[in-house]
Specification:
It is globular, with a radius of gyration of 12 Å. The chain is built from three helices and five strands, in the order βαβαβββα. The protein is of the alpha/beta class and 69 residues long.
């Protein structure tokens, strides 16, 4: 499974990445992004992941703005 992580708090992102590796080592963490703009750019230029794990409140807006474009 290919996973995209969208989290603007560095420690939380690192902890989630570590937990994912421990719980599901067969999964691939494609990228860890910190904001709406970065996520929109990444999704526009890469194949879509199987799963997106996202914080709601990001550094530059709400994650829902990622999907309304």
């Amino acid at each position: 499974m290919k996973i995209l992580l969208i989290e603007d708090e560095k420690l939380a992102a690192e902890k989630l990445a570590t937990l994912l590796q421990e719980v599901a080592p067969e999964c691939a963490l494609l990228a860890t992004l910190d904001g709406v703009d970065a996520a929109i750019n990444w999704l526009s230029n890469n194949p879509h992941p199987d799963l997106i794990i996202s914080d709601i409140h990001l550094i530059d807006g709400l994650c829902f703005n990622i999907y309304s474009n």
